[in-house]
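Help! Submission page says 'invalid entity' but I think these are all valid:
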Amino acid sequence: MSDTADRVKKIVVEHLGVEAEKVTEDASFIDDLGADSLDIVELVMAFEEEFGVEIPDDAAEKIATVSDAIKYIDENKG
Amino acid sequence: MRRVVVTGLGLVTPLGADVETVWANLLAGKSGAGPITRFDTTGQKCLIACEVKPADHEYGFDAGKRVDHKIQRQVDPFIVYGIDAAGQALEDAGLVDMDDDLKMRTGCSIGSGIGGLPGIESESIVLHEKGPGRVSPHFVHGRLINLISGQVSIKYGLMGPNHAVVTACSTGAHSIGDAARMIKDGDADVMLAGGAESTINPLGVAGFAQARALNCSFNDRPTEASRPYDKDRDGFVMGEGAGVVVLEEYEHAKARGAKIYAEVVGYGLSGDAYHVTAPHPEGKGAELAMRMALRKAGLNAGDIDYVNAHGTSTMADTIELAAVKRVLGDDLSGASMSSTKSAIGHLLGGAGAVETIFCILAIRDQIVPPTLNLHNPDEGTEGVDLVPLVAKKRTVRAALNNSFGFGGTNASVIVKAI
């Protein structure tokens, strides 16, 4: 597992209060992890802080699963 | 006429996070005060408070017991306390599992005096240091006063009246009084009613200290700082926590065989129309509220056995006492009167609800809690039983709670054995 994946999963566990085993790469934030749209806004903010990336609103709207987040971060972090 | 009874109780206070622990500690004369641990008090005038204790303390509060991890992260502590106290009250009343009809007849009236000040303070710093794009999407609804009622209704599916009182330190008493009226009026059969507060943060402590309301002269002796009616009193000690009751229409409670603690028989409200922080020097507003509550209850002065005073440990204590004397008589017609703020501090918007619960428990157990630190009673207290230092066994048939708030808002609630 990549370093990005580890750090993303840690943030998801902390913010959503879910068990680590549930945070698989294909898990959907809304359907599988109980997040609502505001939780995703908060998660995106936490990813931006953690990785020093800018995730604009139109990109954030396309982040639906854990792997979407990891992929975006890996492709855009400096 | 529809009658309103109390069938469930919930408490989160500096002396414990469940009703029986709080009550036992209160009767044992314990104090919840200590040095402030929540933040660095460097530069503050007031260094002490009555904090709700952490989960690993002998009588600490475990937020995880009734509040989801995610919600704990999103909302201010006053909402967490309120959700927990409401859950306790519902469990105590045996109403956790309601059918859909009853859920539509069950409402919430749980308020707060100030609301999410700690979160407003910390998020303002985020805004200033990191910009608007870093402000939490949960900032607004995690700080709003009506979000205890909102969260509790969502958690338990309660679709009756959803309301929240904001009357400073009268909030808890107004919440119970107003909710009782909603039941009397037929808007609901069951209401969760009460108040919560948590403002032991740098801005809250500095603000009350600057208003010259907080005790700042007992920083080295925190447990002696809250001393209502004592000559050396010098301001209140800030507390935090929540108190919530289940109010229920009497026939409804009887039909389901509920345990009934007491009946809410009287409620009075008034305004001082005098000053934003100081009470009317003759206590006219307080007197009006008490007289209205007695009249509504159909009781005489001699029927009240216990008064849980507003008694904040400020100069206003003797103004309240003079008003109580005018209503109940110079010897209070034999009633005992104590201020439990001497033990748990001033819970602000939570105070009236927590203290009404103490009145209910005084009726249940026929014992009245003490006024701690009352070693040298001030002038004007002669001939009045202020229950100094130790709890007292006595007959308690009816009890009156007084709560007064900034802005000159007053509320009195009377509960009576059924």
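Support: the input was valid. A stray whitespace character was the problem, and the output above is from the cleaned input. Residues 37-51 of chain A form the longest helix (15 residues).
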